[in-house]
Amino acid sequence: xxxxxxxxxxxxxxxxxxxxxxxxxxxxxxxxxxxxxxxxxxxxxxxxxxxxxxxxxxxxxxxxxxxxxxxxxxxxxxxxxxxxxxxxxxxxxxxxxxxxxxxxxxxxxxxxxxxxxxxxxxxxxxxxxxxxxxxxxxxxxxxxxxxxxxxxxxxxxxx
Length: 159
Fold this sequence. Notes:
Layout (H helix, E strand, L loop, with lengths): L1 E4 L6 E6 L2 E7 L18 H14 L16 H10 L8 E2 H7 L7 H9 L12 E2 L12 H15 L1
Parallel strand pairs: 4-5
Antiparallel strand pairs: 1-2, 2-3
Helix pairs in contact: 3-4
């Protein structure tokens, strides 16, 4: 099942399967990418709770999400995504730092970047908090503008 919500970074489609969030998609939506979505259901409890928490996040009233997540990916991707969940609200980490947290060398930074870009549940799994080693904003599946907006939202909420 899925629902839609308006946000400061554009419409978001939130997808649920078996009681857990499997995707948050940025508009424009790709409906023919092979992902199962099912029917729209704006009253599904886990979807409604996700919308509630995302609204609180965008209002700067929520710093940690508490949602059932079920991202689909390889073991390496899931390991990267688990490390992303450890990056605190308002903080950032480089691709190399994530590689080191996985017990890898800087040589794994590119693989971390690919896994980061494949994150199916952005915002909640905070891939926007991963930046280049020199502090620059590097690629983001939702676009650099969205990444910058999310990071600014978190920074502004801290002060």
